[in-house]
What does this fold into?
Amino acid sequence: MKIREIAYTCYPVTDMGKAREFYEGILGLMPTMDHEGEGFHWVEYDIGAATLALGFGEGMTPSSEGCNVGLEVDDFDSAIAELKEANVEFSFGPMETPVCHMAYVRDPDGNAVGVHKRKEGHG
It folds into this structure.
């Protein structure tokens, strides 16, 4: 088997409406796919060459200790200010490393969402 790329990252959610308010309303993502059926709901957001998905259904349980996603932003300071203005909970940072600026916030289900800005020359 040869793996070529990551197809998507998915966060399980308990309330798709609340999750979409966060990802679309606060983070400004635009859905590129929305599929709902009996007992499940799947929404995708294409971000560059990657896809972030939200899933609701049997066997999908959110966890604040699970995987996380890092979202690259154009203006780190502005993004942090917008999140603070929206009263979003920060679980880590903001902080600076030798290669980037980063912070983690929590979505309505406690999933960790990284806000990230690479420094010039690191990418």
